[in-house]
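PROTEIN DATA CARD
Card holder: 4-hydroxy-tetrahydrodipicolinate reductase
Chain length: 239
Origin: Dyadobacter linearis
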Amino acid sequence: MRILLLGYGKMGKTIERIAIERGHSIAGKIDVQNRHEMDALAAADVDVAIEFSAPEAAYDNITYCLKRGWPIVSGTTGWLEHRSEIENLCMQQQGAFFYASNYSIGVNLFFRLNRQLARLMKGQAYRTSMTEIHHIHKLDAPSGTAITLAEGIAAENSSQKGWKLAPEEEDGFVQIEAKRLGEVPGTHIVRYESEVDTIEITHTAHTRAGFALGAVISAEWLPGKTGVFGMDDLLEDLD
Ligand SMILES: NC(=O)C1=CN([C@@H]2O[C@H](COP(=O)(O)OP(=O)(O)OC[C@H]3O[C@@H](n4cnc5c(N)ncnc54)[C@H](OP(=O)(O)O)[C@@H]3O)[C@@H](O)[C@H]2O)C=CC1
Ligand SMILES: O=C(O)C1=N[C@H](C(=O)O)C[C@H](O)C1
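Structure generated from the sequence above:
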């Protein structure tokens, strides 16, 4: 497949390496300086686009690809207030849009474990909180993954209404502490605390390769489909 990379930073470069290892070619590497190069590409030059850019850039990048008729896999976090506009555009254009706040297969198993634990903890007297730790270059907080985890807890337990970013806290909201340390690729801890004990589950990414591999597998899966998709659709198909 010819893959267009929108965003050629830490993730774009890791995705390039894994895509080439899996036999794909790179149709273009787009960042802030060379966006005009996309206009020179013919529709047929690109089989699928993979977008890992910046919160303020994702909406325009995804819109551009949908209007060009290119299936698009996006992993950028921090822009999801515009998600429904993108989903509407995707339906209007009869395009293909794939989004995940985290493409790692391990994290997606962790999402399922998180929901299972939330079901068990329903009605129990525990305070729910989360810590996410990322590298100092990260622009958004809390992480997209932490938000997905908090949404998973709220979906399983109606006494949880959402999340608050620490130091803010409120009963019925999962408090998320966002730490920025060195070059940490991504650690997420979900915690339940009572007077007498603490239960924690943790996912620790050792490198970015897990995120990048998941994005490339999603890009291999998406072309030829119409609609809005996420990791559950992919994993169901692979199961
Ligand atoms: N869903 C997932 O599994 C994962 C998601 N992410 C998310 O992916 C995003 C990117 O992460 P990462 O690669 O670490 O970040 P980097 O800052 O390393 O790279 C971002 C790249 O995007 C480019 N960029 C910025 N604006 C635009 C634009 N308008 N058009 C095209 N490119 C643009 C930057 O260009 P320049 O350098 O010129 O500014 C840079 O090359 C973040 O939102 C992060 O949270 C990260 C890991 C996993
Ligand atoms: O910015 C990052 O690096 C990461 N961002 C994603 C997020 O916000 O959840 C996924 C991963 O944790 C790495």
